[in-house]
Specification:
The protein is an alpha/beta fold. It has helices spanning 26-32, 45-49, 61-69, 83-86, 90-101, 123-127, 149-157, 161-168, 184-188, 274-292, and strands at residues 2-5, 14-18, 37-42, 75-80, 104-110, 133-137, 141-142, 145-146, 172-177, 193-195, 207-214, 220-228, 240-245, 256-266.
């Protein structure tokens, strides 16, 4: 799949799915169905329009592109969203972006999509334009809940990654560079790859998770992953993501590591003794192996 910045997009007839698509969840996939081009925004529009209300994101642009490519889309067109773009009226957006630049023949949006300065444009505005056909995808409901990025963010933040994965249609995934820790896990017999949460992005709630880890070389391993501040020890460190990769022996420092979160095994807790902690970590490893191995 080709990834193109909007100013570089070649004018040609396109079937466009239009949206922010954070997470590329199952509802988004219904919007994208049948499109050859996805038009999205980077950074998230709210980070420019109202930074205090900008959400923590589920996906980086790279992860979004990976998920969109998996849906058979030919091109991801990225709008570099800034104050000047935010000032475009709905009519200017349609004229300059959809008609002049992208030569849109068909456009699909979710029923709650808004665009243009002051969010004045909506699906009805697109349907009223005879220069292209418009399909409006209804909001998707699962278990009587609307599938939305905000709902999924709440699930991940609360540790409910198993249900979040069901709504996403793929595992919640993060990729970070492995950094040096305090080697506490190594002393306990569980050397971990340490990752720092990224500002502006969702990190699963504190606890221990079964994950699937992929190294920079493409090796895949089951992993027992702790997210938290390590209540057993006073380290002076902030929040940390610590992944113990099963059946792995190597050096990952300075390399990207990808974690797919499959299930929360337990909450974060303080143990009375180091021995009790090690016993629990062995149980966590066995469960992670059963789920992700």
């Amino acid at each position: 799949m080709k990834v193109t910045r909007l100013p570089d997009a070649e004018p040609r007839p396109r079937r466009v799915a239009l949206g922010t698509f954070d997470g590329v969840h199952r509802g988004h996939r219904e919007v994208i169905r049948g499109a050859d081009t996805v038009l999205t925004f980077d950074p998230h529009p709210l980070s420019v329009i109202a930074p205090a209300r900008a959400p923590l994101l589920l996906t980086t642009l790279e992860r979004k592109a990976e998920l969109v490519a998996g849906l058979g889309v030919q091109e991801l067109v990225v709008v570099p969203f800034d104050a000047a773009f935010a000032a475009l009226t709905a009519d200017e957006f349609v004229e300059r972006v959809l008609v002049d630049r992208l030569r849109t023949t068909h456009v699909t949006v979710g029923e709650n999509f808004r665009f243009g300065h002051g969010a004045e444009g909506d699906a009805a505005r697109l349907q009223a334009d005879a220069r292209f056909e418009t399909r409006v995808a209804p909001l998707l409901e699962v278990d009587a809940e609307v599938v939305s990025s905000s709902h999924i963010r709440g699930l991940v933040l609360g540790g409910a990654v198993e249900y979040a994965d069901e709504l996403l249609g793929a595992p919640f995934t993060l990729t970070r560079e492995v950094v040096h820790g305090d080697k506490r896990g190594r002393e306990l017999g569980f050397p971990t790859a340490n990752l720092l949460p990224a500002d502006g992005y969702v990190t699963p709630g504190h606890g221990v998770y079964a994950c699937r880890a992929t190294t920079a070389s493409g090796e895949t391993h089951a992993a027992a992953t702790n997210v938290g501040v390590r209540p057993m020890f006073v380290t002076g460190r902030g929040e940390l993501i610590e992944a113990f990769l099963l059946d792995f022996d190597g050096d990952l420092y300075g390399q990207p590591l990808r974690l797919e979160f499959l299930k929360r095994l337990r909450g974060e807790k303080r143990f009375e003794t180091v021995e009790a902690l090690i016993e629990q970590m062995n149980r966590d490893v066995d469960e992670a192996r059963a789920l992700a191995g």
